Amino acid sequence: MSNAFKLKQEQVQAALIVLYAPHRETQAKAFVEHFCEQLGDQCSEKTNAQSFVIRPKQKLDLTSLDSDAHIALVFDEEVYLQAVGPKPPGPVSVAFEGNAMIHRLKHGGGKGEQVAKAVGLGKVPQDRQLTVLDATAGLGRDALILAALGCKLDLYERNPVVRELLKDGLERASLVSDVADVTSRMSLNGEDFITVGDSLESESYDVVYLDPMFPDRSKSALVKKEMRVFKQLIGGDEDADALFEPAYRLAKHRVVVKRPKAAPFLAGKTPSLQLKGKSGRFDIYTKKAF
């Protein structure tokens, strides 16, 4: 068993630490090279990336790093995001082929899933494929449910780190028969929706789906490890309101916005109807019937 890779505070000058096993060197270095380019105006010396090589499947000791200032992206058997510092939460990756997700696809609520109801799948004829633009794809979980129910999805994710996780998850899923046919209906774009939304053709999708991060500072927002790491990496989508207008223009039938239960309406727009759950809701903006 190899020793753990130990990284000390004085070795790190960038906020994002990229660790890679030799067999992932090309992908990892390409990511580092384009990281600031992808962030555009948001990039600075403090948000740049710095890379280090590790052994395949090597344990990591990142406990001496500052959990408020640094985070690690690891390229190994899978690509995963790792918080640092003492007692960090476990790694975050996109695992469409994981047992829990497969079980949900096979034995979940089908069109009874809240997200399926929100996009209007029950109103669409069985012989028609619903086209959905997911403008804030994140880890792609809602998109996977919709794809499993037959929808064709174009995915956008503005954060380059999260987008790399999603790209890796889709590539690995394409090799697993249980989910490959589902993920084949999911196409990941390499751009920020806010940047390219105005250049897309009006009413080119049946539904546009939005699930922006909400800048909630309460402790309850940090329960899940994914949310804890995401808040550290992304914070809240402070410009999330800018998503609404291009989304509404592109949607033929409806825009669906996933929100925390107490969050204000996106861009101050009152929805046509809502679906409410225990901790969240779907705000639905209808344009015309299916």
Which CATH class of the largest domain applies here? Alpha Beta
* CATH topology name of the largest domain: Rossmann fold
First CA to last CA: what distance? 58 Å
- Uncertain segments are 219-223
Please state the overall shape, judged from the principal axes of the Cα atoms.
globular
What is the CA-atom radius of gyration, in angstroms?
Answer: 19 Å
**CATH superfamily grouping of the largest domain:** Vaccinia Virus protein VP39
Beta strand count: 13
Q: Write out the strand line-up for the largest beta sheet, numbering strands in chain order.
A: 9-8-7-10-11-13-12
Based on secondary structure, the structural category is: alpha/beta
| CATH architecture descriptor name of the largest domain | 3-Layer(aba) Sandwich
Order of helices and strands: EEHEEEEHHEHEHHEHEHHEEE
Helix content: 25-40%
Strand content: 15-25%
Q: Provide a count of the helices.
A: 9
Largest sheet composition: 7 strands, mixed
What is the count of distinct domains? 2
Indicate the mean pLDDT: 88
